[in-house]
DNA sequence: TTGTAAGCGTTATCAA
DNA sequence: TTGATAACGCTTACAA
């Protein structure tokens, strides 16, 4: 196993100082074209790679970005998380950063704290937002640069999100356009900001169509299959003509409940989801849903963080390029 | 923002040398009880945390473990990956290590190489194994400590896996016990070792029951829904009485295909999966499957790697504590 | 344009 | 039992 080359090796081989080599590599400071060329030639030939840890120590940086992964994520949250992760990875890799995952249980900041205390990351990306996120509070209180994926009610938080309100509004409006008049909205309120956005979008969709929703058809208690069953039971006596689910998990539960009760989709009720998933595509019937580009979200968050490191002042962003995928459930 | 305490601060505050403080913290070297007590009291009170990066530089370690995450993972691989990740996290956190995720595309070692070149990790965990894994080859060639989750054909590779052969054999045998005689096995051969294990287990199950399988009922070409449809069509003329799917994805496809063709489960055919998932529990009918403890797998891999760092000689392990969850599909 | 030398915050070696 | 002092590999004033 060849011992790794250090900057001192390169310097002495080339008969120059470490400083010169460092400068040739970083491009900082005045240095002759010729020297730069020689250094690059040598390091290319001998495959020298600067030790990022040593550089980090000297610069007080780690070139790591912490990404929080909640242990409460379930099978339905994974696709979102991985899409974000890929976007983050695109940007970090391109900028010489790496991703350090911190598993967090129950939003407790203990493990995040460890990583921060140990100086393992330069900044952090939160992959979901809640109303009074203890993690965000902790990061703020300790002046750790961070960005949140998802909308935070705290305007100080650097954040990036899809335009859920507009997208949900649009989907709602398009069901109304197709003739639906009594749409039910089914979700689960766990304190996540997105639940609120989806409600707002639903109401906005009605408003855009010039219609008035029956707010008693909004149910935010879809805790599990059993609850969903009861919700469907209740809705059967309310002359509903369509159901919108806040996410793909609830959509699945609704489909199961409808099948059990002999409710046919889309003939009896139309059905749509405010969040798409591959399952909604392969289910029968396939379900109309909003598709967002979550990878882009991750990339934007990572870019914002790196901009922050570099002294720029990135702004929170909202992406408007969602697509509504129409499928059998609203045919 | 309080400037972080350094070991020098602690030393001068206590009127001792940095060496002494370092020794009191690490527990290495002779040092008086009294001094240790004083140092610990002080650092507890003032919340001093050693800088892991600096320590790493001095010791030529990073206290990071690289975990490879394939970008080809799909919705069906996520639960497995996250279970492993949690297990890894349990062990790394307990040992002062962190997890550095490397996203790898198409098994190309480029991004892994970056991480290794940059000295960002002390070792690597591979979360899946293939026949001639370029990543494993790379790590081996460069003397990077690593462990694989999943069975590798290369006996040099430190590995940890569930006893898939025994589990698959057991499930197969139990279907035979229930009266099945002509079981079909449906899988997809992508060169993963596990496919082979599952075949072996299937055959072993027949052997254990003292029966002989019809090997022409083994189909390893379940590439997508369409292929699966054709497989089911073919099996309908072969007087099959049960189907075993290699994983939960294929199980879902088989269920869809059966529904389309009016094949009733479990009345017409019994159905079981060699890998469990929450979907098999909530589907209708729910599907009998083997449940493994993948978190334990991750924990074991991480522990092996850390043992390796500490000069011990960990052995590859196979876990035998699977459970077969019997559900409606084999009632 | 280049070099010297002092950090960065630890640990390790060798004396005392 | 403790303490100087030199690493670790790099960056960065400050000099030349």
Description:
The structure is a homodimer of 331-residue chains. The first copy, chain A, has 331 residues and is α/β, with parallel strands linked by helices. Chain A has three domains: 53 residues, lambda repressor-like DNA-binding domains (434 Repressor (Amino-terminal Domain), Orthogonal Bundle), CATH 1.10.260; 127 residues, Response regulator (Rossmann fold, 3-Layer(aba) Sandwich), CATH 3.40.50; 135 residues, Response regulator (Rossmann fold, 3-Layer(aba) Sandwich). The first copy, chain A, is built from 13 helices and twelve strands. In chain A, helix 1 crosses helix 2, helix 5 packs across helix 13 and helix 8 runs parallel beside helix 9. The N and C termini of chain A lie far apart (64 Å). At the A-B interface, helix 4, strand 1, helix 5, strand 2 and helix 6 of A face helix 4, strand 1, helix 5, strand 2 and helix 6 of B. The structure holds a DNA duplex (16 and 16 nucleotides).
Task: Briefly characterize the structure.
The structure is a homodimer of 331-residue chains. Chain A has 331 residues and is α/β, with parallel strands linked by helices.
Q: What attributes characterize this protein structure?
A:
homodimer, 331 residues, alpha/beta, 434 Repressor (Amino-terminal Domain), Rossmann fold, 3 domains, 6-stranded parallel sheet, 6-stranded mixed sheet, 13 helices, elongated, DNA-binding
Mean pLDDT of chain A: 94
- Any idea how many domains of chain A? 3
* Distance linking N and C termini of chain A: 64 Å
Which sequence of SSEs, written as H and E, runs from N to C of chain A? HHHHEHEHEHEEHEHEHEHEHEHEE
Oligomeric state, counting identical vs distinct chains: homodimer
Largest contact between chains: A-B, 49 and 49 residues
Helix percent of chain A reads: 40-55%
CA-based shape of chain A: elongated
Outline the biggest β-sheet of chain A: 6 strands, parallel
Number of distinct beta strands of chain A: 12
Strand order of the largest sheet of chain A: 2-1-3-4-5-11
CATH third-tier fold name of the largest domain in chain A? Rossmann fold
Indicate the structural class of chain A. Answer: alpha/beta
What is the CATH class name of the largest domain in chain A? Alpha Beta
Count of alpha and pi helical runs of chain A:
13
Q: Give me the Rg of chain A, rounded.
A: 26 Å
| Proportion of residues in β-strands of chain A | 15-25%
């Amino acid at each position: 196993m060849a011992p790794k080359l250090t900057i001192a090796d390169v310097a002495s081989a080339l008969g120059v100082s470490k400083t010169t080599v460092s400068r040739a590599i970083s491009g900082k400071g005045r240095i002759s074209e010729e020297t730069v060329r020689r250094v690059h030639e040598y390091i290319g030939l001998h495959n020298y790679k600067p030790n990022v840890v040593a550089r980090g120590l000297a610069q007080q940086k780690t070139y790591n970005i912490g990404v929080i992964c909640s242990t409460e994520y379930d099978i339905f949250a994974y696709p979102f998380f991985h899409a974000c992760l890929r976007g983050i990875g695109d940007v970090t890799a391109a900028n010489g950063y790496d991703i350090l995952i911190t598993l967090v249980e129950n939003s407790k900041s203990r493990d995040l704290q460890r990583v921060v205390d140990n100086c393992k990351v330069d900044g952090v990306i939160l992959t979901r937002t809640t109303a009074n996120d203890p993690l965000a509070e902790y990061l703020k209180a300790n002046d750790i640069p961070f960005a949140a994926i998802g909308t935070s009610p705290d305007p100080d938080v650097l954040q990036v999100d899809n335009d859920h309100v507009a997208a949900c509004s649009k989907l709602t409006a398009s069901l109304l356009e197709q003739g639906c008049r009594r749409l039910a909205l089914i979700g689960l309120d766990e304190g996540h900001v997105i639940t609120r956005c989806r409600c707002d979008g639903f109401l906005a969709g009605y408003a855009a169509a010039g219609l008035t929703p029956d707010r008693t058809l909004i149910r935010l208690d879809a805790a599990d299959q059993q609850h969903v069953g009861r919700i469907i039971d209740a809705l059967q006596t309310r002359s509903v003509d369509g159901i919108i689910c806040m996410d793909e998990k609830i959509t699945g539960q609704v489909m199961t409940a409808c099948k059990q009760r002999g409710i046919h989709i889309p003939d009896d009720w139309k059905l749509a989801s405010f969040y798409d998933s591959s399952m909604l595509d392969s289910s029968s019937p396939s379900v109309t849903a909003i598709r967002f580009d979550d990878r882009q979200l991750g990339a934007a968050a990572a870019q914002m963080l790196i901009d922050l490191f570099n002294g720029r002042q990135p702004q929170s962003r909202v992406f408007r390029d969602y697509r509504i995928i129409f499928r059998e459930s609203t045919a």
